[in-house]
């Protein structure tokens, strides 16, 4: 079975695909070894790892090279966060995604952000026309992340955008920021049978509850990358301040030998 078919097959009704997002080949390998059935990237983590801010600032060449390196390091399907496709032009966004597919990616997240839903729909249609089932297009709806509509209109706007993206050929629908159980149930009902993806939040219901509500995919987003950077910053500050080495060796489960062996595929 191809990785593309395998990835499509992970979105099974009644199951919850949990994706701990990676930001480079090493983190992807660690996440795969932790038992993940697939790897997803985080746009923020990939951008930060290369010294860029999140938000369509990462050069496409850098992203493609990162995808290629991750694919080399893992043996499971890879889905890639391509932000808005790095262009407002559907043909250019589709061409950028074609480079991701050529590098080995079999899925993407592509977002509407503050732009028109019709523009994202045109991008989705162009991507699916080029690749069909060779890519899983997860359409990200940013209604809960950006002040696009009034709070009491969010559920209705999510349903409206879901219908637009479903008609354009999306394979999944991603609603980051949604955490209310009633809103989640409404989104699942509005999805028309397509898998609904949520993003980890401190106040999000647990996995069992999400599965019972019909959610089929849960992503960490940039949370793991943020946590790793926060830990690095804390240790670096302490080490730089007093030169005390002890704290650098108190992280459980991470050793030079074990990590080095893990990278030898």
Describe what you observe in this structure.
By secondary structure, this protein is α/β, with parallel strands linked by helices. The protein contains eleven helices and eight strands. Strands 1-8-7-6-5-4-3-2 form an eight-stranded parallel sheet. Strand 3, helix 5 and strand 4 form a beta-alpha-beta unit. The model has no long low-confidence stretch (mean pLDDT 96).
Question: What is the topological layout?
Answer:
Elements lengths: L2 H7 L7 E3 L5 H9 L5 E2 L2 H7 L10 H14 L4 E4 L8 H14 L3 E5 L5 H15 L4 E5 L13 H15 L3 E3 L6 H10 L5 E4 L7 H7 L3 E3 L3 H20 L13 H7 L3
Parallel strand pairs: 1-8, 2-3, 3-4, 4-5, 5-6, 6-7, 7-8
Helix pairs in contact: 2-4, 4-5, 5-6, 6-7, 7-8
For the secondary structure, the number of strands is: 8
Detail the poorly predicted runs.
none
Distance between the amino and carboxyl termini: 21 Å
| pLDDT averaged over residues | 96
Briefly characterize the structure.
This protein is α/β, with parallel strands linked by helices and 265 residues long. Helix content is 47%, strand content 11%.
What tags apply to this protein structure?
265 residues; alpha/beta; eight-stranded parallel sheet; 11% strand; globular
